[in-house]
Structure prediction request, 65 residues.
Amino acid sequence: MAADQRPKADTLALRQRLISSSCRLFFPEDPVKIVRAQGQYMYDEQGAEYIDCISNVAHVRITAT
Prediction:
């Protein structure tokens, strides 16, 4: 099953099993499940768009000149 099709509860169970408790969720009572990203935008399972401004990853778009 693709990760974006897995129910959020199953994803949270996997996260609890595989990721250290020191890596905390920002919203533990109802975390956002990001299923795809493009450029600086991330999308949740309902298609809502978020701008990625906390990943500490530089987003660079290279265009041909």
The beta strands are 34-38, 41-44, 49-51.
